[in-house]
Amino acid sequence: MDFECSVRDWNPMQDGAFTLVRESKQSMFLTFINLQTMSLNMAMLQEKGMLENSTRIRNSPVQSIYLPAAIKLGTLTIDQTPLLNVTIEQNNTCLDTLVISDSQLREVPGTVAHLLAVLRIDITVARIRSIDFALFARLPRLEILTLNFNFIHRLEYSASADSDFPELRELYISNNRLTTVNFTHFRTMHALESLYLSSNQIRHVQDSPLLGARLRFLDLSCNSVVHMSTCNWTVGSLLNFAMYNNSLVRFPACLEETMPEVRYLQLSFNSFSHGSDIGRLASLEKLQILDVGYNRITRLALDTLIPSLKYLNLEHNPIVQLSVGVANDGLAINVRCGAIEEFDPANVTHSVIALEMGHCPLDCSWDRRGDNERAADARTNVQCVRNDVTDRDWCKV
């Protein structure tokens, strides 16, 4: 059984230690709140019997921390401190988790390279402006690296080898200030499964190779990308591609060729106006959900089968004309808040079992997804209703 103990307002230089009592099989999470020192050697806590395998320092004036290699510490969490410096002695084989949040760090401590057993490193909400991946490249067990909410505007990889990053599975660099992405920075991360680059200021994605044989999730959402190509990508295992809230005017080039396993395409809140681009996706045989809501599509004539597509989201597009000649059986389509004024349900194949047209000028919605005995033709007995201007006001965003 685990439990947490909090120690408040303790001064390790002046106050005496005290005994932390627990059962022999219990694990303790020890948290220091307002630890009264600016410079902390973790060995001092161990000498006073005030160090647990999981130790947290929170809301304290600590500016400098020194971690000797011999310290038996598995998880170190430091948050809400004016921390400026962390020094880790060479050959540290104990620490497996390092979390630093809400600090004054201006760069990644160079001695993180000494953490030979670390599995996870989080350095978030700091003032870091650039990253050299070489600092982390030779950590043999590192699986998760999180650098969100910094001021990172430049990525570097000063020296690389194909054996670097042997176990890195998740990389988070969201909510920073990157303006361009060069995927060669990730070329030796062969084990990478998830890459998050959302909420930066990315305008340009370089036409560089993305070699991610194991990559399953790629997030470039909430940036300012206008054009991009995936022609040089090797992402045969990618399942989820998030590019929503950008400024794309066309689907990325070669998208339909480089992502054979993709299930989910998140492309809402862009500037697409060519409904014909959707037909390009017919070769994506495993695509299940396509989200192109909140774009500028005015017409869609879907006459090419996307074999596994279950849900097509077109809501909040100024779409005036819709026809679906062929579709996977069981497809649901959402064109809510469109601009359709004239519509014939016969122009949509009976394979479409749900069509949401709420808040369009003309609403001919139907939905047979909940029927135990689905009607042979979901369009049967559809009644179209004209909506007034007041109803359309609901769609304003």
UniProtKB/TrEMBL annotation:
Protein name as catalogued: Leucine rich immune protein (Coil-less)
By its UniProt entry, which SUPFAM superfamilies does this protein fall under?
L domain-like
* Gene3D superfamilies hit by this protein: Ribonuclease Inhibitor
The record lists the organism as: Anopheles stephensi (Indo-Pakistan malaria mosquito)
Q: What is the superkingdom listed in this entry's lineage? A: Eukaryota
- InterPro entries linked: Leu-rich_rpt (IPR001611), Leu-rich_rpt_typical-subtyp (IPR003591), LRR_dom_sf (IPR032675), SLRP (IPR050333)
